[in-house]
Specification:
329 residues; Rossmann fold; 2 domains; 7-stranded parallel beta sheet; 6-stranded parallel beta sheet; 13 strands; 44% helix; 17% strand; WecB-like
């Protein structure tokens, strides 16, 4: 058995890492869990929900806020932990600051690095920002690349990664549904929406903050046009910039803005949607599994498989294009 050290810091990371942790435990591997604390409240709620106790919590957001500070602080906090624990393999997921910092510390300490959800690419270093460059840099250091699809495997092969280090393993986000979906689920937002079909909205990405007015204007027009048949539920991000603009631009009887939902609640609300508008990467994958079409509120996607399959359509952040996608122009 190998000693495995998992590093994560955000809620989306943990959602996709949790099934892997459970399987590693089932196989009897010694496990060390490190939370950098980038998503403090949302991630801690999730850890409590699944009765997961981490071995180390860096509480990074209590000291730092900027990207450079978060990465540098994470590296400083992780390095003594790695030196103490001496794991056989460090596992990171995706493309966050914790992923980048964990990968660098693994490299500095010459410890094997496994990258879960490897090979996703847009090849535009500013879209998504900073995630695209995070995952490309991590890919240079990884010893094991666990990719979700054949297309992501091909990306890595084109970049010159050794074939014997790439493993197509599917998407662990889908594995998470076995722990979250409930047949007897009820929710106040679903009760409010029950007399009409649901459009679910999420919008939070850093690179989209300057386009929020365009996004919200388009959503408000959708709410007005489809007022007889649809209602819109928007679990809003904690970012005060997003909240202020949403409260101003999304006052509509057919739009319900609610606080962020934890993973179990979000999955069970999402499964009832007829359409999803989102700039999230993970939701693109989850919605495809649930058979729900998605309009991606971004110019690019690192998940072109969904576009090719017809489950995803790119908006491009222009209101007119969004409304054209919905047949209003």
């Amino acid at each position: 058995m190998k000693k495995l050290l998992f590093i994560f810091g955000t809620r989306p990371e943990f959602i996709k890492v949790y099934p892997v942790i459970q399987e590693a435990k089932r196989q009897g591997n010694p496990i060390v869990l490190v939370n950098t604390g980038q998503h403090k409240e949302m991630l801690n709620e999730l850890l409590d929900e699944f009765s997961v106790e981490v071995d180390y919590d860096l509480k990074i957001m209590e000291k730092y806020s900027g990207l450079s500070e978060i990465v540098a602080g994470s590296i400083s906090g992780l390095d003594p932990i790695i030196k103490k624990e001496q794991p056989d393999v460090i596992l990171v997921h995706g493309d966050t600051a914790a992923t980048l910092a964990g990968s660098l510390v693994a490299y500095f300490n010459q410890i094997k690095l496994a990258h879960i959800e490897a090979g996703l690419r847009t090849y535009n270093k500013f879209s998504p920002f900073p995630e695209e460059m995070n995952r490309q840099i991590v890919g240079l250091m990884a010893d094991y690349h666990f990719t979700p699809t054949e297309m992501t495997k091909e990306n890595l092969l084109k970049e010159g990664k050794p074939k014997n280090q790439i493993f197509v393993v599917g998407n662990s986000a889908i594995d998470m549904f076995q722990y979250t979906l409930k047949d007897d689920y009820t929710n106040e937002a679903l009760s409010w929406q029950a007399d009409k079909k649901m459009i679910l909205v999420t919008a939070h990405r850093r690179e989209n903050l300057s386009d929020l007015e365009e996004i919200f204007d388009g959503i408000a027009e959708i709410a007005d046009e489809f007022r007889e048949t649809h209602k819109i539920i928007y679990p809003i991000h904690m970012n005060p910039i997003i909240r202020e603009k949403a409260q101003k631009l999304l006052e509509h009887s057919n739009i319900k803005i609610i606080d962020p939902l934890d993973t179990i609640n979000f999955h069970n609300v999402m499964r009832h949607a007829e359409l999803i508008l989102t700039d999230s990467g993970g939701i693109q994958e989850e919605a495809a599994f649930l058979g729900i079409p998605v309009l991606v509120l971004r110019d690019t996607t690192e998940r072109p498989e969904g576009v090719l399959a017809g489950t995803l359509k790119l908006w491009g952040l222009q209101k007119k294009i969004l409304l054209m996608r919905l047949g209003l122009y």
